[in-house]
Amino acid sequence: MNLKRLRGLLIPVVLIALWEIGSRAGILPEDTMSRPSDIAVAGWDALLDGSLLIATVQTFQTALLGLAIGSSIGIVLGAFVGLSPILEGIIGPTLDTVRPIPAVALIPLALLIYGFGVRMEVLVITYATVWPVLIVTISAVRGIEPRLLEVARTLEMPTLSRMRRIVLPAALARIAVGIRVSAGVALVVAVTVEIVLNPQGLGYGMIIAAQSLRPELMWAELLWVGLAGWAFNGLLSLIDRRWLGRFQTGGTR
Fold first, then answer.
1. Under a CB-based contact definition with an 8 Å cutoff, are residues 150 and 130 in contact?
2. Comparing 250 with 51, which gets the higher pLDDT?
């Protein structure tokens, strides 16, 4: 492990040590701030009995599905809006009106349409993840070198071919940033919907642990959400560095 990573562990280790000391000294109330040692035991037990892994799969299933749908809509719509000022003039005001609506405000509507379950949660996540990708895609497409688009017009390339061969490859690096932002949003919204309404996943597990007066399990699941999100972001960063770099250097030929 290099020095940079060791420095990054300094603050978490110090906080956990102070937390444990404060709990054992009676400074922190154990009924709400369980000892880190008890949290570790509860988390380990939840891993061994499979409940934590099942909840993680449920949360990420809906988060990834909503992210995939939302990103696809954002990329396609953003590419066309970015290329066409006329289209932007037509649908731009509608997008600006709908975008400020919080994703959680759609929970009652999604519940009315689909009832409890995965589809309700995916609908809310899709709405939340569309916007970062859409905004970044529009900006990225507008920033494409004009000479590339001029070449496409000179060659009389069809619109879809122009999108596939010129527009999306040129804007891909910035679009990837929007997808990474939306990935974090997807996880946040998934856990929020599970806490508020949907009886599955990590959010629901935290609510059940709190209602069962098991703060150590609630803290374990909360910290697990953070670790899972950190690992997910690391995976996206790895894909970005390796796959996207290879695509940009050789995949567009």
1. no
2. 51
